[in-house]
Amino acid sequence: MYVQILRGLIVAIFTVSFIASSGVVFAGPFEDSMAAYDRGDYATALQLLRPLAEQGDAKAQNGLGAMYHNGKGVTQDFKEAVKWYRLAAVQGYTDAQVNLGAMYYEGEGVAEDFIRGYMWFSIAAAKGNPNAVNLRDDLSKYLIDEQILEAQAIAQKCKASNYKQCD
To answer: pTM value?
Structure first.
């Protein structure tokens, strides 16, 4: 039952991280994509997000990953979601790091790997992401001390390499 609650929280975070990732007052293509997504116009959201994501915008990459994860405006494709989340995560975007950690936790688009999930949650938690703190702490209940130490060592290596040695 506890795992079901944790999984429910993860699904909610995927959705919220896309919807709430704006926060900018001035309108632009990203904000327009958010507005289109909010009104259910996923084709427009996709049309606006994709070029931004392909140009390296981390928020847009995370948003595109969420669209693939949730199957909104595109065919649901967990591997494609992981691709976009990873591109944003290695830029230091904490919402994408949380989403990528959740993909490892769930085994969606990647092999289930609690150590990698813990690692990504830890990286985002260290940057102050409250969702990451909660998910990391919840996930730790399924790991033994050696696995937590391994995840922490991988997280340190990942951060020290500027996200080039994370896998």
So the answer is: 0.85
Alpha-carbon distances, residue 153 vs 61, 63, 82, 118, 157 (angstroms) = 27, 29, 22, 11, 6
Which candidate, 92, 109, 105, places its Cα nearest to that of 141? 105
Query: Would you write out the chain's pLDDT as a tens digit for each of its 167 residues?
Result: 445 545 655 655 655 455 444 444 457 999 999 999 999 999 999 999 999 999 999 999 999 999 999 999 999 999 999 999 999 999 999 999 999 999 999 999 999 999 999 999 999 999 999 999 999 999 999 999 999 999 999 999 999 999 999 87
| Residue with tokens 């949650």, as numbered in its chain | 121
